[in-house]
């Protein structure tokens, strides 16, 4: 029944030529309430069947000028649409410029300086963990948003500022997630989505939504992660090859966490196919790290998650054999996947040695991700506690 109601609301709204935000305003007006208790995202939840309006139903009917029964009875085929980027934008407009701005004039040089600092933050994240980077990242983000809202600038400069804010939000959200600040990461990613959407940069929006999907997938909301990853891919259909490869990697990981083997492996292959199209075209600088090696890392992780050690072990052995040891956090994370794959391959002695190395590396890294992976590895080693090498690792970890 909720599916029929959602489909009817969407169909009737579109007949009126209204946006979801417009319907939300009309419903509040019909109910005689102020303060916007119903917003665009709530309407989206009704239409996708994620939530049933119930007490709002009479006011929805009044706003759409139909009887309540017209909402309850199937009017159109019930076919819930897949989520889109619009479903994940924050309520309101957090980047609306202050109406009476009196700040300094912002020109292209200021934007260029900001973009350089954003890239510097990305490079720092390669070698410094989230716990150590979070405060400077948030300071940069607050400063950038203030510059956009309070400064005076041309439309072109404003659009460039929004792109820089979106890029900064992506790396700041990633850093917050690595530091274990998941609620903060979610808020930051959604701010970045708003900036990218306002700047009409679909590729950047896809990167942000894919990052949000990855966070959701890794924190237990797997189906939402799958939906978000798919929405990111669909929203940026015209993105450059390396961007599409990145989005497909997120899709592969979400499906792997959901235990959907075929969908995960299909996305892995499609990511590789997308990357082969890369050939010197103009693309955003934040894609610098997406290459065949990174896709191999994701394939190995997907295979490990799906408990396919015959594929995962040689992939990870190859990756680790040439990985930059200065990237301590990433090396520790990849070692954790290798240790798990080795337990699946019934190689407890090598798994123990790998786990010991991973734990030593993680000890000096302020990363919640590596801390969680240590727990995962230790749980998997418990099945081999009778093996002396494994028992020594488990006892030393207490």
List the helices and strands and how they pair.
Elements lengths: L1 H15 L3 H12 L8 H8 L9 H8 L3 H5 L35 H20 L2 H21 L4 H24 L3 H17 L3 H17 L3 H14 L5 H17 L3 H15 L16 H14 L3 H13 L6 H17 L3 H15 L5 H14 L6 H9 L2
Helix pairs in contact: 2-3, 2-4, 6-7, 6-8, 7-8, 8-9, 8-10, 9-10, 10-11, 10-12, 11-12, 12-13, 12-14, 13-14, 14-15, 14-16, 15-16, 16-17, 16-18, 17-18, 17-19
Walkthrough of the structure:
With 398 residues, the protein is mainly alpha-helical. The protein contains 19 helices and no strands. The model has no long low-confidence stretch (mean pLDDT 88). The radius of gyration is 24 Å and the shape is globular.
Task: Describe the structure using short key phrases.
398 residues, mainly alpha
Beta-strand percent range: under 5%
Q: Name the structural class.
A: mainly alpha
**Average pLDDT score:** 88
Low-confidence segments, given as residue ranges, are none
What's a quick, concise take on this entry?
The chain has 398 residues and is mostly helical.
């Amino acid at each position: 029944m909720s599916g029929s109601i959602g489909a009817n609301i969407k169909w009737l709204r579109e007949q009126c030529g209204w946006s979801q935000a417009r319907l939300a305003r009309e419903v509040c007006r019909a109910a005689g309430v102020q303060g916007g208790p119903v917003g665009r995202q709530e309407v989206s939840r009704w239409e996708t069947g994620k939530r049933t309006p119930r007490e709002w139903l009479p006011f929805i009917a009044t706003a759409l000028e139909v009887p309540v029964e017209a909402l309850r009875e199937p009017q159109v085929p019930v076919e819930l649409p897949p989520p889109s980027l619009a479903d994940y934008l924050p309520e309101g407009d957090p980047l609306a410029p202050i109406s009476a701005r009196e700040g300094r004039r912002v020109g292209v040089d200021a934007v260029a300086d900001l973009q350089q600092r954003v890239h510097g933050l990305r490079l720092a994240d390669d070698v410094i963990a989230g716990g150590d980077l979070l405060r400077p990242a948030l300071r940069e983000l607050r400063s950038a948003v203030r510059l956009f809202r309070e400064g005076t600038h041309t439309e072109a400069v404003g659009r460039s500022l929004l792109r820089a804010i979106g890029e900064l939000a992506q790396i700041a959200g990633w850093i917050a997630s690595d530091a274990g600040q998941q609620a903060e990461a979610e808020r930051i990613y959604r701010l970045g989505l708003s900036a990218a959407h306002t700047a009409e940069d679909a590729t950047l929006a896809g990167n942000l939504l894919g990052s949000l999907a990855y966070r959701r997938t890794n924190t237990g909301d797997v189906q939402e992660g799958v939906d978000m990853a798919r929405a990111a891919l669909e929203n940026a259909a015209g993105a450059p090859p390396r961007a599409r490869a990145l989005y497909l990697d997120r899709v592969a990981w979400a499906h792997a966490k959901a235990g959907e083997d075929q969908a995960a492996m299909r996305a892995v292959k499609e990511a590789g196919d997308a990357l082969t199209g890369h050939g010197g075209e103009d693309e955003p600088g934040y894609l610098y790290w997406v290459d065949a090696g990174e896709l191999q890392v994701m394939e190995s992780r997907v295979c490990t998650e799906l408990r396919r050690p015959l594929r995962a072990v040689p992939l990870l052995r190859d990756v680790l054999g040439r990985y930059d040891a200065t990237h301590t956090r990433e090396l520790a994370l990849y070692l954790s996947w290798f240790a798990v794959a080795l337990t699946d391959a019934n190689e407890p002695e090598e798994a123990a040695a790998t786990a010991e190395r991973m734990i030593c590396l993680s000890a000096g890294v302020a990363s919640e991700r590596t801390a969680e992976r240590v727990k995962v590895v230790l749980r998997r080693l418990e099945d081999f506690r009778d093996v002396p090498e494994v028992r020594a690792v488990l006892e030393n970890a207490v």
